[in-house]
Specification:
The chain has 341 residues and is of the alpha/beta class. Helices cover 33% and strands 16% of the residues. It contains 12 helices and 12 strands. A 7-stranded mixed sheet has the order 4-5-8-9-10-11-12. The chain has a 5-stranded mixed sheet with strand order 1-2-3-7-6. Helix 9 links the parallel strand 11 (215-222) and strand 12 (248-252). Helix 5 (135-144) packs parallel to helix 6. The radius of gyration is 20 Å and the shape is globular.
Length: 341
């Protein structure tokens, strides 16, 4: 390890920083710099103009080793004067006092038990969590105060905390969603190079379901011209259904400032023939045209109904015949549940 600073961290200031070098016995962290800080606060209010259906979040990390080229959270690294490209992927800020801060916040008389969402900015179960183990203390605090919460993740480390999640679900509302936008292996390797494979993420869905914890899938992002062909959408929804997901929610790629520049650089290197098409599709802002989003949502909705994803069969793994296509229920008894978390 190369030590950059040995200052004792004070709330809100940089404490210990270190980079994992090539001689480390943890090769999965080579080239990653961890910045340990003692944060001043941990519960954040979502801006009123946000499209998110929740008001409060907890984010124990900044930056993410998942290195998803489209990640909308890249812009947040610029607030710390850190690079939103490779810096976002390799400069990880760790709020080492997150569990104790959260427990103190939940005990405050000013807090009234509102829902807390996690994994909405960067993944709280990215690889750094295997090293720092912040989430067990966070879940314990939420469990002890019976505070409802949800988690969105691409990480398989969440299964480490299965028993804590079960305990929390006994006393409060717990929502778990896994992000799987596609099952195309080639696309995964290039746009989400630091994440577990889609198959491993679906194993998480299956394991949670088998242990009595409903787990939905955020089918995100659906990437225009790369992951939106009819056969790709069908393969993804089918795999999600076979994993026993309780719901599926499609979300089309959006390109906010910070992420947009990084994604377009990647697109120019890997798919230069698509650059002009993307410039036209996203000419009016960060989001794809409404007609396109609705078309994707409608198609995924239809496929989900065909494969039986919905509350009528919640938590049950689907046994889908290999030789024939399943038919939609004639009476429409298995509607699709579309929720963000």
């Amino acid at each position: 390890m190369r030590w950059d600073s040995l200052r004792e961290g004070t709330p809100g200031q940089l404490g210990l920083s270190y980079t994992i070098d090539d001689n480390s016995d943890t090769p999965e962290f080579r080239g990653i710099t961890f910045h340990e800080i003692r944060a001043r606060s941990i519960v954040n209010r979502v801006p009123g103009a946000s499209r998110m259906p929740f008001e409060w979040t907890v984010n124990p990390y900044r930056g993410c080793t998942h290195a998803c080229v489209y990640c909308f959270a890249r812009k947040t690294h610029s607030y710390l004067d850190l690079d939103t490209g490779l810096g976002f992927d390799s400069q990880i800020v760790v709020k080492i006092n997150a569990p104790e801060l959260l427990r103190r916040h939940l005990a405050s008389g000013r807090w009234h038990g509102a829902h807390i969402a996690m994994g909405t900015n960067v993944d709280c179960y990215q690889r750094a969590e295997g090293r720092y183990r912040l989430m067990p203390g966070i879940i314990e605090a939420l469990r002890d105060h019976a505070n409802p919460f949800s988690i969105l993740t691409k990480g398989t480390i969440v299964l480490r905390d299965l028993e804590l999640l079960r305990q929390a679900a006994e006393v409060t509302e717990v929502g778990i969603s896994v992000s799987v936008g596609f099952v195309d292996a080639e696309l995964w390797r290039t746009v989400e190079p630091g994440t577990p494979s889609p198959e491993r993420r679906l194993d998480v869905v299956r394991t949670l379901s088998e242990n009595g914890i409903d787990c939905g899938v955020l089918m995100a992002p659906v990437i225009p011209f790369l992951g939106d062909r009819p056969e790709q959408l069908r393969a993804t929804v089918r795999a999600i259904a076979e994993a026993g997901a309780s719901s599926v929610t499609p979300l089309v790629l959006h390109l906010r400032p910070g992420a947009r520049e990084w994604f377009m650089q990647w697109l120019g290197r890997h798919h230069p023939q698509l650059v002009r098409r993307y410039e036209r599709m996203y000419a009016d802002g960060s989001y794809a045209p409404t007609w396109y989003q609705r078309a994707i949502t409608r198609r995924v909705h239809e496929l989900a109904a065909e494969y039986g994803i919905g509350p009528a069969r919640r938590g049950e793994a689907r046994r889908i015949p290999v030789q024939q296509e399943p038919q939609s229920p004639a009476d429409g008894s298995a509607p699709t549940q579309l929720t963000l978390l």
